[in-house]
Design goal:
It is a single chain. The protein has two domains: about 30-50 and about 195-315, Sandwich (Jelly Rolls); about 55-195, Jelly Rolls. Helix content is about 5%, strand content about 35%. The protein has two helices and 25 strands. It has helices at about 20-25, 330-340, and strands at about 40-45, 50, 55-65, 105-110, 115-120, 125-130, 135-140, 140-145, 150-155, 165-175, 185-190, 200, 210-215, 240-245, 250-255, 260-270, 275, 280, 285-290, 295, 305-310, 320, 325, 360-365, 370. The protein has a seven-stranded antiparallel sheet, with no helix packed on it. It has a six-stranded antiparallel sheet with strand order 2-3-10-5-8-11, with no helix packed on it. A six-stranded antiparallel sheet has the order 4-9-6-7-24-25, with no helix packed on it. The longest helix is centred in the C-terminal third of the chain and has 14 residues, at about 330-340. The radius of gyration is 21 Å and the shape is globular. The protein starts with 20 loop residues before the first helix and ends with a strand. About 40% of the residues are buried.
Length: about 375
Amino acid sequence: MKKSRRNFLGKLSAGLASLGLAHQGLTQENDHKHETMHPILAVQPLGFQWQTADPFLFCVHHDDHFPKGQAHLGPDPALLQGRRIGQDFLLKDGWRMYHGETVPGFPGHPHRGFETITVVRKGLVDHADSLGGAGRYGNGDVQWMTAGKGIQHSEMFPLLQQEQPNPMELFQIWINLPRAHKMVDAHYKMLWSEDIPRVAYTDADGHPTTVEVIAGALDGQQPPTPPPNSWAANPDHQVAVWIIRMAPRATWTLPAAAAELNRTLYAYEGEGLQIAEATIPTYHEVKVQPDRALSLKAGDTGANILLLQGKPIQEPVVQHGPFVMNSRQEIQQAFSDYQQTRFGGWPWGRYDQVHDAKLGRFARHGDGREEFPQR
């Protein structure tokens, strides 16, 4: 089995050092009262894989400008020359093949012990799994998959447009499962774009801000419920996944949350963003005090920000490749179980399964249930 992108977990460059809050003028002495401390705790640059805080495990931002597709739903084979096919993670000509050989993406690979939240901003993803599930989703859709006791799945990026480029942008976020739910049955849930709230704000100067609420309520707007065994399913854990989109020079106040949460903002697009009056460079992570309201002000190019927050699970985390458990022994058991059962096998004719080019968005679950969203 090819190595997964998840092998990158824990290997972030040592060079991703904090910008140094002393350099930003943001630190206070440890004995100062909480309310006198600056609400920004740390700022650091983002690499290919983003650091996250408990209950999250990591986040990857894929932003590929794929070329025109061919009949096989991949790029012209001539464009693959000079690439490390099967392990193509270097950005060349604005895109990567990842583990794909003819179609970009991630052919069948196993998981156990956590959940994936795949937020597709542009483009489409073809899903297939060892339980017989399948789907095509994207352009604002979210797939929330509970790996639980074990599943294989593939995530391929079909280049459906043959007359024009195929841009793809998505976030894949790993969120941990608590010990009590690590061995639940695997399944996935679709959060279709049409069902995800987008809360609109306008500042005093008429500049808009929109917050896409994927998890965690905002101003009374409730997103679709997460899978039932997710840490996010309990509202007391205050898990939030929001995408904040600010127009040029827009201002917005991020409301305060509970003090026991971890809250991080990922400023992934836009120059000149200010958070609590501190200027944040583009493509940087900002860890903040969760119980302080934060003033956000976009620069002249606007700003796009991913917010992740939640109450920490506070259990041991032992990760090896695609498995995330609480002990080394459980990791060894996961490998043994996968070798014996293949987590249900692979019912598809190819590990880089792509669906008929004529199909639109759909989801087919392991129990046979089908979904066809309408726009």
